[in-house]
Write a structure and sequence with these properties.
233 residues; alpha+beta; 5-stranded antiparallel beta sheet; 4-stranded antiparallel beta sheet; 7 helices; 26% strand
Length: 233
């Protein structure tokens, strides 16, 4: 009986050690920030704001999956209501960039995850900070550097995720890509993207915007990864 208890104790200790080892080596670092989009519409400034939470996977370099560059997003895309002209979304999808635009974006930030995960690095002007497929110590240091920042910062247009405009639900493609440098080409004269700001925050994640049309709320026409995070409830 005594031997059985000893063996059981050893197994329990080993199980605790394994759990502690995994907890210390496999985890996520969360960066929560508020994105605010400002649009000039004639003589008015219209805004849309959303708090999202992005988590970055930390794994040892020896993990079978290798360095993990994926991020998980919780929240909804910032949305600007331009009235009869439609809605403008700053989506979670990567922008479609030409080779010249890729080079311009790389000058602003060297980041190996998706656009929405790179925004904090670009906004806080840390071009030497690398987040993505690099060693775990470097990734942890990069995220610590980002989380030590404070205050609102402008996000360079060159690094923005894809901007989308909503069309009628009966349209074959109800969401179309628009250029941050030429909103007037899609929304009409007098419409211009003024600025996008990012600020780290502890505020709760913003719920689905009430201005979204019903067809969009029902999510029958969009991919979850575009306008809301995979991890949303």
């Amino acid at each position: 009986m005594k031997g059985f208890r000893t063996a059981l104790g050893i197994l329990a200790a080993l199980a605790i050690a394994v759990v502690a080892f995994l907890w210390l080596n496999f985890y996520h670092v969360h960066v929560r920030y508020r994105l605010t989009v400002e649009v000039q519409d004639g003589n008015q400034i219209k805004t849309g704001s959303s708090v999202i939470d992005v988590s970055y996977s930390i794994e040892p370099d020896w993990a079978p999956s290798g360095p993990n560059a994926k991020v998980r997003t919780i929240g909804y895309a910032p949305t600007v209501d331009l009235g009869e002209k439609g809605l403008l979304f700053l989506s979670f999808a990567n922008a479609q960039r030409s080779p010249d635009q890729i080079r311009e974006s790389s000058k602003k930030v060297f980041c190996l995850v998706n656009d929405i995960g790179c925004l904090p690095v670009a906004a806080y002007d840390k071009p030497g900070t690398v987040i993505g497929s690099v060693s775990s110590p470097e990734r942890r240091a990069a995220l610590r550097e980002v989380l030590s920042q404070s205050g609102p910062r402008d996000v360079p247009f060159a690094v923005l995720p894809r901007l989308l405009r909503s069309l009628n639900v009966d349209h074959p493609n109800p969401l179309v890509t628009v250029s941050p440098d030429d909103l007037s080409g899609s929304f009409g004269p007098g419409v211009q993207l003024k600025r996008v700001t990012l600020q780290l925050t502890d505020d709760p994640v913003t719920p689905m915007p009430t201005i979204w049309p019903q067809w969009l709320k029902e999510n029958g026409h969009i991919d979850d990864a575009i306008l809301k995070g995979y991890q949303n409830g």
